[in-house]
Every structure is written in C-alpha cells, then in structure tokens.
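### Sample
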Amino acid sequence: MGHTDESTTATGIDPADRRFAAVRGCERQLSGIRPQSLAERLADLSGEDGRAAFDLDGRPDVYGDGIVAALEDRVAELLGTEAAAFFPTGTMAQQVALRCWAERTGNQLVAMHPLAHPEVHERQAYSQLTGMRTVWPTTAPRLPSAAEIADCDEPFGTLMLELPLRDAGFVLPSWDELAASVEAARERDAVVHFDGARLWETEPHFGRSLPEIAGLADSVYVSFYKTLGGISGAALAGPTEFIAQSKAWRHRYGGQLFQQWPAVLAALVGLDRELPRLDAYVDHAKTVAAALAAAPGGRVHPEVPQTHQFQFWLPFTADQLNEATLRQAEESRRVLFGGWRDSAIPGFALTEITVAGPALEWTTEDVADALKEFLTLLG
C-alpha cells in the first residue's frame, strides 16, 4: 500500500505483514482482490478451477513444453494471432519485442509515450541493453493522435502504444482514433507494437473483440497477473516468424526456465475465471467511481472510467491515507483502497482503484457509508 508513517514502523511489525493481515482479515473489499496465503494459493491452483484449466495428473513442463505450450496456444487463439510465446516477466517480453522489431526494420528508434512502461518502470532497459532510443510524439497525458504520429520529426521504426495508458489514469483512445494512429505509423513504414498488459479489459470501451483489437498491431504483449490475477508471467503474440525470433531472445535473456507450471496454471485459471467477468467489472467501475467522486476534495480520473481501473485523488498525504486505510481494515473489517502515493500536486495523494470480483457486491450506498467512515479516521 505504499508509504507508511513512523508510528507504523515503530511498532516493530513489518509493514507488508500488517497490510497482508489487515486486508486478508476483511469481510468486504472494494479495490483489488483478497490476498491469499501460500497454502491458500496452492489449494486454489490444485482445486476445482485448476483441474478444470489443465490436466493436473500429467507431468510438469520442461523448458517450455506441456502446459506452457498449451497456454501459448490458448493466447494465440484468444488474440487471433499466428503464435504466442510465454515470458516470465512483462519487462523481458517488452524488451524482446522491441529488440526483434529493431532487427527486422533496421531502425532502433521507437516512438512511445513518456509515461509508457519502458520509460517509467523498466530502468531504461531498452537503451541500456540494446542501445535503442525513443522519441515522444506527445507528452500530453493520453495516447498520441494520428496527426502527432504523422508529424513526428524523427524516422522511428516501431510505434509502441500502451493500452490502456496506466500512468495517465488507465486512459484509452476511441476505436477510430486508435485505428488512425496505427495507419499513421504504417504510412511511415513503421511497425506497431501494443503494450497490452491490460488489453483484456479494453473490449467494452472499443466495442470490438480481442482479435479485432490485437489485429491492428504487428505484435501484442499481454500480462497474466494484471487483470487476470495470476502469479506472474506474460506473453508476446504475433506472426509465427516473429515469435520464433522472440523465443530465441527469450533464451538469451534468461527466460527459458526449467519449469514454470505454477505461473502458467494460474494464468490458465485466470483466463477461465476472470476473462468472462471483465465486462461486469468495467461496468461496475462507473458506479464505484461516481460514489467516490462525492468525497470532499476528492477527484476521480477519468471521470467515467474506461476500464475497470481508475485513479482516485484526495487532499491528504500518502502516509495519512495509508494509515487510515489500514485502521479501517483492522477496526471495521472493510477496506476501500490499496496503496496511496503522493502526487506531483502538493497536498494531494492518489491511489489506483481496481474493480474486481469483491467490488461487485458494493452498492453506491455501501461505498458512501464506508467512505464517510474512512474520512472520519483522517480527522
């Protein structure tokens, strides 16, 4: 949940352990999913859902065969691509995708947003490991427009679009805007890669199927622990030759693990369990956002969520809000928020709301009542 104040750490209790115990002990949770102990997670994977997802009486995978290959086939089918490759991390998948396209196009310049994941959360691996560099078609907190892509003053070889753009507030363009942006890149002889870590929940906004969305790009990356609740892992999807090249680089980057069945099984369970529920999550996010927007000084962004995730801002410090979050969880056994962090706006902190299964039982009145209690804890 982010920062903790001195009174929390002074107790001698590990802050992460306190968070885990507080949220796990709650009867009701608005944002995110209930944390599980190791025993609970193992029982979940070996239980009914795990057995429905894959034959658990078979042998474990060895260097990417068996259950790993089954997941790759499933992802390719879901996205409508020729092939897919499983990766242990999204960071590795992203770096391999950009590297492969640079080799194929002969151009190491990538157009992306300054808030894109490789710029903010990957320690500039694309430049440190490959010598690639980036150009920003726009710095506005949204995806670049077709005009901005067309007018970019450097000849990039790959356009990378993060759908949704998480650090701008999980924002998306319209379908027509996205199609126009892709076409603008094509007219510049560039390939298009979608950072689709959260692509799964974009169908309601675009009004298109996953194959239609993925079909706009030359390659797509998807995550299994974001949205789907998996343990870890990601996949690249695209043409057969591109995926074969990606697997070669996956090996070189250390991603050819001996066995990966726990993460892969969790991904298959997530596809079975969570994918059919995403429309309901996205729809209910609008109800939750409207209820939270009534908080004095509070702000929801986007005002109407475009996925099942959005930002919520309050005029307090992150330490104050994190402590109030834990106190409410411990004292009333209901928790509204995950972690808070201080924002660039002085005096305001923000949290990311994820409307998943536990949130579906919350009515507008439930959110308002719990929010009132939460604000009381802030004094």
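Confidence is low (pLDDT under 50) at residues 1-8. This sample (Threonine aldolase) is used throughout the tutorial notebook.
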